[in-house]
Design brief:
By secondary structure, the protein is α+β, with helices and mostly antiparallel strands. The protein folds into two domains: 170 residues, FAD/NAD(P)-binding domain, CATH 3.50.50; 170 residues, D-Amino Acid Oxidase, Chain A, domain 2 (2-Layer Sandwich), CATH 3.30.9.10. It is 27% helix and 24% strand. β1, α1 and β2 form a beta-alpha-beta unit. α1 packs parallel to α5 and α2 crosses α9. The longest helix has 21 residues. The structure holds flavin-adenine dinucleotide (FAD). Flavin-adenine dinucleotide binds next to α1, β14 and β18. The site of flavin-adenine dinucleotide (FAD) has 41 residues, from α1, β14 and β18.
């Protein structure tokens, strides 16, 4: 493999983080701030070049599991103060997050979740009746609207800027980031991590490897001789033309019946849809079917483009049923895609690997890796530094998944 930049690689590091996406970046920053450990971040491509740059980047507190709510509370505080802490431009647009419901039973279930979220300290989350929704968000109009759950402290983020800022801050504190440096081997001896190999020839001794490789995390895990139940699933985003004068930049992230979602992107809309039928077959088996990491790509597959028979057009049509200005003025401009990294229960794995001492996984975030990155960084630093964690780590543990058992604290609000 060519080594285009002829970098010099260190002979050893206390901690090697594989992946310079938002997760690896946050972990690097937390370790740089809280410890004297020698941290090396390696990425096979450019920083933030994986799922981090393909994300809708929404942030919300509105989950059904205690662990996800806690991750959002920790992360929300950090994102709120991020620009002040790091002296960068604002990364968090707090337009709020609105779940609209057309079925009474879904609105009832949402009301119970709102109670649960409030009990756990989510500020100002509330249920709105149909009339209140129409008054507060006059651009919404659907004959079957039954109500909405709404939190004004939610919104959306700038994930590339967050990742770069964390990494720059870690580098300023003397830690190392090496891009275009694919990890091609993880040496395990006596049941413990001993070293990683970069680009097939640079051996770096280490006792701790953090697998923050996003959709490639199972492939990275296999370098250490073990599998984790995590599958990349391709997901698409669709972008409309600009809709000047309609107030779109002030809209919250809006989800229709937990399926279609949209949020402002400049004067237009960025939209996505939960593509349940695209889950790989045999999903409930362990180990799940794995995609060859090398086959992950940026192709818009046939049928998923923006033509009149394509999936993107269905997304736009569903949005148009709820938002008249979309029906009147919006067309599709372009599409993009990336990969969710999905575990059997769609919750993340933030866990030491019980089979290989010194291997820690921080992956499997489905559609939540951007919003939860600050909390993930903190949790992983706590685990490495032997500090008590602020949430119950059992909910994110790998062990039950390896035994094919259900984990505690299931999450129902995955889009
Ligand atoms: C369409 C879409 C919409 C989404 N919407 C949201 C949302 O609204 N909110 C939200 O919070 N999340 C959302 N997500 C999910 C979010 O983007 C991811 O959870 C998050 O970006 C994961 O970040 P990461 O750093 O863990 O992984 P990545 O950003 O994928 O980073 C992993 C890195 O590992 C590197 N790597 C892989 N293998 C190796 C190797 N062998 N050696 C060295 N480096 C390696 C890759 O190059 C990559 O840079 C969305 C994702 C998609 C695709």
């Amino acid at each position: 493999m060519p080594d285009p930049f002829q970098k010099s690689y260190p002979a050893r590091a206390d901690v090697v983080i594989i992946g310079a996406g938002i997760t690896g970046a946050s972990i690097a920053w937390n370790l740089a701030r809280d410890s004297g450990l020698d941290v090396l971040v390696l990425d096979s491509g450019p920083k933030a070049g994986g799922s981090t740059s393909r994300s809708a980047a929404a942030f919300r507190h509105q989950f059904s599991s205690a662990s996800a709510i806690e991750m959002s509370l920790i992360s929300g505080r950090e994102y709120r103060d991020f620009s002040k802490t790091f002296g960068c431009e604002e990364v968090f647009t707090r337009n709020g997050y609105l779940f609209l419901w057309s079925r009474a039973e879904d609105a009832d279930a949402a009301a119970s979740r709102v109670d649960f979220q409030r009990e756990r300290g989510v500020p100002d989350v509330e249920m709105l009746g149909a009339d209140a929704v129409r008054r507060k968000f006059p651009w919404v109009d659907h004959p079957e609207l039954k109500g909405a759950s709404w939190c004004p402290h939610d919104g959306f983020l700038k994930p590339d800027l967050v990742a770069s800022t964390y990494l720059e801050a870690a580098v300023k504190r003397g830690r190392t980031l090496l891009q275009y440096s694919e990890v091609t081997g993880i040496e395990v001896a006596g049941g413990a991590v001993r070293s990683v190999t970069v680009l097939g020839r640079h051996r770096i001794e280490t006792g701790t490897v953090v697998n923050a490789a996003g959709p490639w995390a199972n492939a990275v895990s296999q370098l250490a001789g073990v599998q984790i139940p995590l599958t990349p699933v391709k997901r698409y985003l669709y972008f409309t033309n600009q809709l000047p004068g309609e107030g779109v930049p002030g809209w919250p992230l809006t989800v229709l019946d937990l399926e279609v979602y949209g949020r402002p992107e400049h004067d237009g809309l960025m939209m996505g849809w939960d593509l349940r039928p695209a889950k790989p077959s045999g999903w409930d088996r362990f180990p799940p079917p794995t995609l060859d990491a090398a086959s992950l790509n940026d192709r818009i597959e046939p049928g998923f483009g923006i033509g009149p028979d394509d999936y993107g057009f269905e997304v736009l049509s569903r949005m148009a049923e709820w938002i008249p200005v979309v029906a009147e003025k919006a067309g599709l401009d372009h599409a993009s895609c990336g990969y969710y990294e999905v575990t059997p229960d769609e919750k993340a794995i933030v866990s030491w690997d019980p089979r290989v001492r010194g291997l820690l996984h921080a992956a499997g975030f489905s559609g939540h890796g951007v919003m939860h990155a600050p909390a993930t960084g903190r949790l992983v630093a706590d685990m490495i530094l032997g500090r008590p964690a602020p949430i119950d780590l059992k909910a994110l543990s790998l062990d039950p998944l390896l035994r094919n058992e259900e984990r505690d604290d299931p999450e129902r609000m995955v889009i």
